[in-house]
Design a protein that fits this description.
about 425 residues; binds uridine-diphosphate-2(N-acetylglucosaminyl) butyric acid; alpha+beta; four-stranded mixed beta sheet; 23 strands; 2 domains; 15 helices
């Protein structure tokens, strides 16, 4: 069993380079199924979700060749109209993009329902609605998405009554292959939606308006291969921003897009943290003290739900009471038990967490209960004097590229260790970091 051990309580300082965005990379990888050439995708984060996406593509016949650590060549010429192995599909959320991609390419698809972080119910009704609007018949029986467009996909008007990143991306992927014009109203505006559209346009698609409230897709054009670099991960950047603030340090966060970080930046400034913006970087410097603040998560450009648990750590440390209202995932509060184990005073009522503030975390043995909750306990450990151990770290590695070595590069005393079954507490206190 691998675990992370942190000797915290020290300010972090230095420079860190942000990797490509997980949620853009996973969409782009599945969208390569639509291209009839070779796609070279650069700036891929080295994370297990990306490895799982590539394994799924290989399982259906794609030729996948790693050119370097962050660059892959994908040739989907020989992809077959076949069902991907369920154990792979269930490992990740993004496998639902295979539905849009296979439907677009073959006019039919059968793929298992996806997995991903456990936030309670994660419906896919909006994905189904989009496929149906484009002319497919969809059956969700037997734990699968089983869809067929007997007369081919046809461009259509798709109105989403609520914003969904996944449904917007799936609708774009399928509509690119649908004959005629598709108009998506009230789509998600996240940077990864724009990145996916930019990738498809680089392959010859005609998608306009991604990132705004109406997306137009002139579908049915054949797609060729291209070379494409994934945008930087705003959530990884945000996590390092919080790391600087939580440890009283200063980190130069390089290869970031400051515009994508605006809501995080403005919340940190409200809390007394200094954020200097550069062309492709932000410098985050902790202030004298962390001021209390209230946060509400919203779809982009609102405060990202994927930064909720990390921000909760700062609210624990802030000088006074705060609250955080979650509007996207009602199961997002699973980090609370872990932070409470470290001494945090948090109360959750309905979809709001109330923080007493002025927490002095105490070292403990805690778990990564999901990807971002895992990042939160790492951040709390970095801000805690003494030794904290984090279990179930594979959930963190789903979405953070080499988090341990990146944190070490800004001065953290952190290490990944292999723990023999049945090890005693003494084992942890003897580890050298
Ligand atoms: N929703 C529906 N019906 C649907 C789809 C979504 O009601 O058909 C609801 C969901 O229940 C939720 C809201 O709409 O309340 C937003 O869900 P969305 O579809 O936007 O989420 P997702 O596509 O499943 C992506 C990211 C998540 C991120 C959310 C919100 C990927 C692979 N995942 O999920 O990322 O939290 O958008 O921004 O892109 C993460 O990276 O840690 C992560 C969980």
């Amino acid at each position: 069993m691998e675990k992370i051990v942190v000797d915290g309580g020290y300010p972090l300082s230095g420079k860190v380079d942000i990797s490509g965005m997980k949620n853009a990379a996973v969409a782009v990888i599945f969208a390569t199924v639509l291209s009839s050439g070779v796609c070279v995708i650069d700036n891929l984060p080295e994370i297990s979700d990306v490895a799982d996406c590539l394994a799924i593509l290989q399982s259906i016949g794609a030729n996948v060749r790693m050119v370097s650590r962050n660059k892959v060549e994908i040739d989907t010429t020989n992809v077959r109209d076949t069902e991907a192995p369920l154990d792979l599909v269930r490992k990740i959320r993004a496998s639902y993009y295979l539905a849009g991609a296979m439907l677009g390419r073959f006019g039919k698809v059968k793929v298992g329902l996806p997995g991903g972080c456990n936030f309670g119910v994660r419906p896919i009704d909006l994905h189904v609605k989009a496929f149906e609007r484009l002319g497919a018949t969809v059956d969700l029986g037997g734990g699968c998405i089983d869809a067929v467009a007997e007369s081919g996909l046809k461009g259509a008007n798709i109105y989403f009554d609520s914003c969904s990143v996944g449904a917007t991306i799936n609708a774009i992927i399928a509509a690119v292959m649908a004959d005629g014009l598709t108009v998506i109203e009230n789509p998600a505006k996240e940077p990864h939606v724009v990145d996916l559209a930019n990738f498809l346009n680089a392959c010859g698609a005609d998608i306009r308006g991604a990132g705004t409230s109406v997306i137009k897709i002139y579908g049915g054009r054949p797609l060729h291969g291209c070379e494409y670099a994934i945008i930087p991960d705003m959530i990884e950047a945000g996590t390092f921003m919080v790391a600087a603030a939580a440890t009283g340090g200063g980190i130069y966060i390089n290869n970031a897009i400051p515009k994508h970080l605006e809501t995080i930046t403005s919340k940190l400034r409200e809390m007394g943290v200094r954020v200097d913006e550069y062309d492709q970087a932000v410098m985050v410097t902790a202030g004298e003290k962390l001021l209390a603040a209230n946060v509400k998560t919203l779809a982009y450009p609102g405060f990202p739900t994927d930064m909720h648990p990390q921000m909760a750590v700062l609210l624990c440390l802030a000088d006074g009471p705060s609250h955080l209202n979650e509007t996207i995932w009602n199961g997002r509060f699973r980090y609370v038990d872990e932070l409470q184990r470290m001494g945090a005073k948090i109360r959750v009522e309905d979809r709001t967490a109330y923080f007493e503030g002025n927490t002095v975390f105490s070292p403990s043995i805690v778990k990564a209960v999901d990807l971002r909750a895992g990042a939160a306990v790492v951040l709390a450990a970095l801000a805690t004097e003494g030794r904290t151990m984090i279990e179930d770290i594979s959930l963190i590695e789903r979405g953070y590229d080499n988090i341990v070595s990146k944190l070490r590069s800004v001065g953290a005393n952190i290490r990944k260790i292999e723990v023999p079954e049945g090890s005693s507490k003494a084992f942890f206190s003897e580890i050298k970091i």
